[in-house]
Design goal:
Length: about 200
């Protein structure tokens, strides 16, 4: 006899309790994930702010670098305006070279995916032809960049290499087993068809 004063719970109560426990577990996991993401986002924000500050300082330091170059040229004996003019011309030449390289690179950019569009048009044309003439359209061969083409070529080469000994003419030594096998078969057939003389005796 059970001495436990607690009443036994039904299956529905057990399911409801398990559902509540699972919901509480999921909520706690979500809260933990949110807290972790918040901490990481705060770290990322601080790091981004530091990087932005470094970029600003670097931007203004470039200005002082060019001033230092101009002052150094002036210390070599040139007038102040000439030293600053030289630095300015060097900066303009560098900017012009970088601009020309950028324009040349931008001209090579194709904004529309021509290959993807061509493949899509071929696919649509093939589907239309297959719908118009069912069972008569020959499927197009796969493109050369398809890895299945390289695999099939490798398998074909392996098969041809393995089949080479079978196509070579057989010599007298290799034909002997086949002729022996034929003789054995004929002998067995003849012995089976002739009556055994010892059986008559």
């Amino acid at each position: 006899m059970s001495t436990d004063p607690r009443p036994e719970r039904t299956l529905g109560q057990l399911v409801a309790s398990a559902t509540q426990d699972i919901s509480a577990l999921i909520r706690s996991e979500i809260a933990l994930a949110k807290a972790e993401i918040a901490v990481q986002a705060k770290k990322a924000g601080v790091g981004g702010g530091l990087l932005a500050g470094a970029a600003v300082v670097l931007f203004y330091s470039v200005y002082f670098i060019f001033i230092t170059l101009a002052e150094g040229i002036q210390a070599m004996g040139l007038p102040r305006w000439a030293s600053f003019l030289i630095v300015t011309l060097v900066m303009l030449i560098v900017a012009a070279v970088l601009g020309l390289l950028g324009v040349r690179k931008m001209k090579t950019v194709q904004p529309s995916p021509d290959k993807a569009i061509g493949e899509a048009q071929q696919t649509v044309a093939g589907i239309k032809a297959a719908i118009a003439n069912p069972g008569t359209v020959v499927p197009a061969p796969p493109p050369s960049w398809d890895p299945r083409v390289a695999k099939a070529t490798t398998n074909r080469a392996t098969t041809s290499v393995s089949a080479t000994p079978a196509t070579t003419p057989t010599t007298g030594s290799t034909a002997t087993p086949s002729s022996t096998a034929d003789t054995t078969v004929i002998t067995t057939t003849d012995s089976a068809s002739k009556p055994d003389p010892s059986r008559d005796a």
